[in-house]
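Example 5.3 — Glutamate-1-semialdehyde 2,1-aminomutase
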Amino acid sequence: SPEHTPYPDGARASEALLTRARKVVPGGVNSPVRAFGSVGGTPRFMTRARGAWLEDADGRSYVDLVGSWGPMILGHTHPQVLQAVTEAAAEGFSFGMPTEREVLLAEEIVRRVEPVERVRLVSSGTEATMSAIRLARGFTGRSAVVKFAGCYHGHVDALLASAGSGVATFGLPDSPGVPASAAAETIVLPYNDLGAVERAFAERGSEIAAVITEAAPGNMGVVPPAPGFTEGLRRITAQHGALLVSDEVMTGFRASAAGWLGLEGVPASGAPDLFTFGKVMGGGFPAAAFGGRAEVMAMLAPEGPVYQAGTLSGNPVAAAAGLATLQACTPEVYARLDEVADALTAAVTDSFGRHGVPHRIQRVGSMFSVFFREGEVRDYDDARAQDTERFGRFFHAMLRRGVHLPPSCYEVWFVSAAHDDEAVQTVVSAIEESAAEIA
Ligand code: PLP
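Solution (predicted structure tokens):
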């Protein structure tokens, strides 16, 4: 493991890079949450990573609990994945023609997630959900889509709408640039509220193409579906001829070998029609997918009329990384992820409890998050009622001690199978000292 140097004296190289970056990149970053907007301070520019550890431009090392926001389930530069990527790259970077690696990756996904009969590879989770929605609209001939407040499905116009409460809030765009017409086709409902879903379908059932939901939400912190919620969504959508799209971009191949579906099982009322995947299945490279029932997927070009395409879709290097990652995700890997999650959640419970820091941990498989509030979190309103200022102080207390948490209190703490006992112990000690500091 790297020499571990906690630092009190700032991050000069990162600050210099941020100044340069801001002159040529909006906000200096290529994805907003990287800017440390909600916690303040200077985002660290990274130079290299191995296993559970990151190293930044100032030469400081950190135990990584961001994991590239999900993909790095095996830790960084895993030898098997590195070898697969190197071999694939040596054979050609991109052909724009079909390759066996795409078939292998698709077969692996279909083998693991039983209701998925056909799968189309794309390059990001956003593309996966965008294409799944288009396909659902094409298949049903309807336009409206139901999503849940607090669920993130990428920056698709129709899915950025998220605010709203009450029966069936007709979404207003959250972002300038999203036309009101796009948001008007989006019905935003509170999560875990089947009554709200029933009422929305009673009102507009014949217009609704699909309900899209995070299989187990991780983007408002971890908020598991209440018992019967997924089952209810399947029942209601089936009654009204709408599709159910289960977004497993985050949970896929992480919550279990078969994602959230592997933990919860196929609901008694039936499996979702479509699934979206990303993150782990790309092994840190741009690969994602959507798939589902053969009958629905047959609507997709070139078999059917719903258009969807991509210059780099199924890229051979990304497919090699994804395949090697999935193949290396053995039962031992999932067992280790659980052990690491057990150790870290126990440390939070213990240290926060002893120092009187109000908190709530929620978890699905090894995916967990820490809310800076007490009491069960069932939806986005609950999730937002937390002490974000105190989280910001905790984040920086941890960062100073060489632990890089996600810079937002609405994110999962992403563990990897490379988090060995030394990495875990570093985090556990940092949690204890940081809890004392913010108490
Ligand atoms: N869906 C879910 C559940 C996600 O967590 C994310 C990303 O965080 C996305 C979709 C979008 O994926 P991407 O960032 O690869 O576009």
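Remark. Residues 163-171 have pLDDT under 50 and may be disordered.
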